[in-house]
Design the sequence.
């Protein structure tokens, strides 16, 4: 709460990332508080979010663990809380003790920052550091302390909840498990959502990428932490949910999303039980995520698959991946609609009897397999283009490429038949094949990235500029895909962890409520389908120019013969002129 209040009211920082600096626009500035002290207060208040997380899990561990490693006395627990809160303010002191001379720092930064916004010159920008080395180490040290403590308390609590101890009855242990999972989800889901803008700011500082629009949006999203924590608290705790505004749909003054969905379903003569009404908010979120995934993949097709800087096989590969995800999300949306019309948003025997549901379920699994297999095939195609360029440009490869496309579609069709055959062995083959394609793509993509980077950095005498241009594009696209894959794996690992806890530990829901757990897991898949395409787009340096970076006009590019040929040159234009400079006549 304090961190959000500081960001939105008292500080209101205007950041100019990748510069480690900015200007506060909040009440503290109007009160005349120096920027130096505002930095200390701002960093410290944001860090209190981490200390609060540690203190919450320490409290949970203290009440759960009857014997073992824990803080017993009230004094020791208070000192522990004070220590963690003090760390949040102390970690930034080394950075504040080395604040550079502002005039000198501003001149030095102006030499390397690309197209700074007008505010860089118009505002009294405070530069905390000319480079991010010291602040990077300070923040990393603070995070390491908090993560180590939080991880210890989480693991210790989990061990005592899983182990069969006589000091806790079965009923008490189950209640403690549910409460612990509720607290865990309540804390980490807002952290995960707010972590996206934080990750962008770190990425911006590390790579030197500047986009003022994204900087401002990142600060807005970071300020939503308390709001999201409140929403998740209401959703996760039944007593809050029953007494909160989410169930006040009978009041005409307040029209919530739950009320809207309830009236829509009543107009369709659908009977929804009071138990399923608790899931209407999640249904709304699922619809938003599905639409977001559709838009994101269409954007990937438009911005990457139709770019001239990529060869035809690369464009076809990306197009197949994104188009299969689009069909996959449409099929899932129709599936969900059929289930909603049958009385519940979950998969159930009633909606599974409908022919349209069975057809969409088949399309859903088939396009999912096409997406997984085409990603692996795309990576192999990139390796061939890097390692064996002559074969990659031959007619033989073109024939093999289209044969592989057809084979992958047939294979995906067969795997979907296996999944819907009702045979347990065939269904296991489908599951193993899916995971095999997913896991094999990462090492292949690493090979493609390392190879393209090594060959691209070779001397110009080794390859001509056209070949270096091709290698550069391969390096960029493989790097962006590798980055997106890592995020993809992290989200999938978290979703599979939740699924494993449900199947083998009976967490979250009872055994006969599999549909509810599948609904939650699908929401994580849909988050993935939104993040993956934007990770590819934003990490690829050739695609960042689609966003407006600054109001400062470009000077354009002049060709080798002295003629100004283009006002906003693309990467391809620059390479063409470089090629002419090396191979053309001397002027």
Sequence:
């Amino acid at each position: 709460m304090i961190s959000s209040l500081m960001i939105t009211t008292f500080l209101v920082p205007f950041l100019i990332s990748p510069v480690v600096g900015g200007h506060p626009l909040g009440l503290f500035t109007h009160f005349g508080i120096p920027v130096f002290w505002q930095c200390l207060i701002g960093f410290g208040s944001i860090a209190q979010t981490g200390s609060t997380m540690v203190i919450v899990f320490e409290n949970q561990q203290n009440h759960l663990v009857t014997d073992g490693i824990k803080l017993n006395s009230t004094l020791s627990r208070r000192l522990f809380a004070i220590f963690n809160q003090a760390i949040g303010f102390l970690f930034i002191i080394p950075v504040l003790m080395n604040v550079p001379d502002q005039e000198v720092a501003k001149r030095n930064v102006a030499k390397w920052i690309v197209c700074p916004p007008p505010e860089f010159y118009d505002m009294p920008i405070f530069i905390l550091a000319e480079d991010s080395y010291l602040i990077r180490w300070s923040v990393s040290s603070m995070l390491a302390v908090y993560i180590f403590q939080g991880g210890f308390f989480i693991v210790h609590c989990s061990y005592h909840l899983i182990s069969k101890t006589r000091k806790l009855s079965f009923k008490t242990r189950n209640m403690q498990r549910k409460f612990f999972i509720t607290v865990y989800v309540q804390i980490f889901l807002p952290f995960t959502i707010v972590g996206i803008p934080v990750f962008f700011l770190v990425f911006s500082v590390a790579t030197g990428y500047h986009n003022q629009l994204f900087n401002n949006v990142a600060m807005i999203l970071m300020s939503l932490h308390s709001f999201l924590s409140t929403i998740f608290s209401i959703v996760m705790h039944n007593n809050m949910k029953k007494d909160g505004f989410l169930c006040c749909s009978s009041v005409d003054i307040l029209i919530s999303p739950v009320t809207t969905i309830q009236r829509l379903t009543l107009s369709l003569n659908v009977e929804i039980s009071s138990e399923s009404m608790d899931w209407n908010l999640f249904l709304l979120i699922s619809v938003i995520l599905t639409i977001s995934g559709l838009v994101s993949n269409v954007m990937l097709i438009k911005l990457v698959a139709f770019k001239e800087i990529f060869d035809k096989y690369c464009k076809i590969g990306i197009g197949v991946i994104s188009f299969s995800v689009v069909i996959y999300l449409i099929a899932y949306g129709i599936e969900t609609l059929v289930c909603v019309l049958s009385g519940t948003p979950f998969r159930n025997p009633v909606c599974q009897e409908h022919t349209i549901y069975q057809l969409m379920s088949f399309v859903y699994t088939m396009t999912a397999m096409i997406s997984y297999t085409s990603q692996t095939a795309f990576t192999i195609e990139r390796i061939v283009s890097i390692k064996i360029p002559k074969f990659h440009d031959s007619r033989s490869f073109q024939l093999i490429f289209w044969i592989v496309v057809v084979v992958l579609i047939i294979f995906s069709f067969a795997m979907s038949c296996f999944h819907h055959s009702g045979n347990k062995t065939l269904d296991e083959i489908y599951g193993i094949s899916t995971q095999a394609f997913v896991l094999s793509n990462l090492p292949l993509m690493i090979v493609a990235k390392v190879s393209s980077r090594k060959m691209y950095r070779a001397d110009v005498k080794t390859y001509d500029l056209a070949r270096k241009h091709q290698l550069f594009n391969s390096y960029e696209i493989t790097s962006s895909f590798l980055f997106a894959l890592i995020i993809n794996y992290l989200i999938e690992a978290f979703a599979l962890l939740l699924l494993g806890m449900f199947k083998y530990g009976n967490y979250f829901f009872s055994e006969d409520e599999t549909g509810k757990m599948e609904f939650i897991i699908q929401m994580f898949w849909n988050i993935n389908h939104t993040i993956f395409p934007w990770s590819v787009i934003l990490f690829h340096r050739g695609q960042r120019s689609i966003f407006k970076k600054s109001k400062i006009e470009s000077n354009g590019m002049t060709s080798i013969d002295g003629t100004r040929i283009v006002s906003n040159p693309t990467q391809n234009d620059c390479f063409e002129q470089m090629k002419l400079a090396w191979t053309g006549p001397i002027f």
The chain has three domains: 2-228, 277-542, 550-587. Residues 244-277, 546-555, 557-562 have pLDDT under 50 and may be disordered.
